[in-house]
Amino acid sequence: MAASSAASTGRRPARSKGSAGSPNTASRPDAMHAGSFAHPVLVADIGGTNCRLSLVEAAGAKHVPLARIPTGNHPTPEAAFDSVLSTLSERPRSAVLAVAGPLDGRSAQLTNANWHFDGPRIAGALGFEQGLLVNDFEALAASLAVLEAGDVQTLVAGKPEPDGLRLVLGPGTGFGAAALISRGGRGVLVPTEAGHIGVGPEDPTEEKLWPLLAASLPRITVESLLSGDGLVRLHRAVAAETGMLEAKVSAADVTTLALDGDPAALKAVISFWRLLARVAGDLALAFKATGGVYIAGGIVPRLLPLADHGGIRTVFAGKPPMEDLAARFALHVITTNDATERGLAAIAAAPARFGLDDPARLWFA
After folding, report:
1. Which segments carry the region annotation Disordered (predicted)?
2. Which domain holds residue 285?
3. Are 133 and 99 in contact, with CB atoms under 8 Å apart?
4. Are residues 171 and 278 in the same domain?
5. What does the radius of gyration of the chain's CA atoms come to, in whole angstroms?
6. What sign results for the dihedral spanned by CA atoms 152, 172, 192, 365?
């Protein structure tokens, strides 16, 4: 996908990399002390399969999509970004990048792809004055502060507290989770590696499937089942357990087949929903998510027509001996497809709002 013309119309001429027009912000602390990254800001949602680039012209402005790039098309993130930024009439001054993988200060590694991120190196290569790496679910957690009622669909109403901890989680190429804790107008984002928690069977149907799942996995984790590959694994296990012929299919194929009423695919999706509700309820207890639990990612919105709201509510809140607490938790699905970008734009506008004005994480050219 080429750079959007809407993103490049009417801009000032581009500053060259490393030019006098892009001074080292370490000698210009006013940019961050003003409470915002220097705009325009490149924001990127970088997953194991695709990288989505957008531009935010000014603090509070809506992000403008630039391109969607398969991560396998370029050897490094710098090469991928430059393939798009080189087409713009004005290069961004800063970058806030959401990476689907664990962070270590100013560096990160994609969990399901071979891209490594070094913030200062990226700034030097692309002429950014400043930047920040965040976990992709940190960005989604930040989006909870700016999403509107029409951006979510409620599965379980619960009794949420306005200032309660909010938790976002969800399946995609992998499985992620992060929390947003808000106090007095400031927030703290808490990333996790919850996708790598082990998970076992809890009902008779799962007890039949687990040996079939375990045969092809060194360890059954949340991510190994609640992800695109996980939906395929569940479909394969259901087909094997019921004696149905299992075609070689993708997660998208399983979804389409289930919507068309295919028995094996439908049973796989039902198992997926029940497991997702169970894990969401368990993590809600772990974090005491009295502000609500939000499911994100590209898989679940497509499965909403097959959601058994009553069954989901029962599994999500069925947490003896903590049923009274679990009954207070709300469960929603984020249905807008740009929540990550909106979270990144909110971070770029006011990093201190999310506790991200951290010198140990910020980087400069």
Report:
1. 1-32
2. 149-334
3. yes
4. yes
5. 21
6. negative
Integer Cα distance of 86 and 83 in angstroms: 6
Cβ–Cβ < 8 Å for 341, 62: no
Half-sphere exposure (Cβ direction) of 282: Cα atoms closer than 13 Å: 15
Q: What is the DSSP letter of 198?
A: B
Residues 91 and 135 both lie in one domain: yes
* CATH classification of the domain holding 194: 3.40.367.20
- Residue 10: pLDDT over 50: no
Tokens representing residue 237 in the block: 């296990």
**By C-alpha distance, which of 187, 177, 266, 258 is closest to 221?**
177
Calculate the alpha carbon distances from 333 to 44, 48, 75, 149 in Å. Answer: 22, 22, 34, 11
Residue 113, helix vs strand vs coil? coil
Token digits of residue 333? 């699905």
Distance CA 350, CA 33 (A): 10
Residues 133 and 233 in one domain: no
Please state the φ and ψ torsions of residue 130, each to the nearest 5 degrees. -160, 165
| Distance between CA atoms of residues 266 and 303, nearest Å | 10
218 and 283 together in one domain: yes
Could you give the CA distance from residue 54 to residue 341 in angstroms, rounded to a whole number? 7
Written as one letter, the residue type at 27 is: S
Q: Which of 251, 347, 344, 331 is nearest to 296 (CA)?
A: 331
For the segment 231-286, what is each residue's pLDDT rounded down to a tens digit?
Answer: 999 999 999 988 887 778 999 999 999 999 999 999 999 999 999 999 999 999 99
CATH number at residue 22: 3.30.420.40
Distance CA 64, CA 55 (A): 5
Structure confidence by residue, pLDDT tens digits, 333-363? 999 999 999 999 999 999 999 999 888 999 8
- pTM value? 0.87
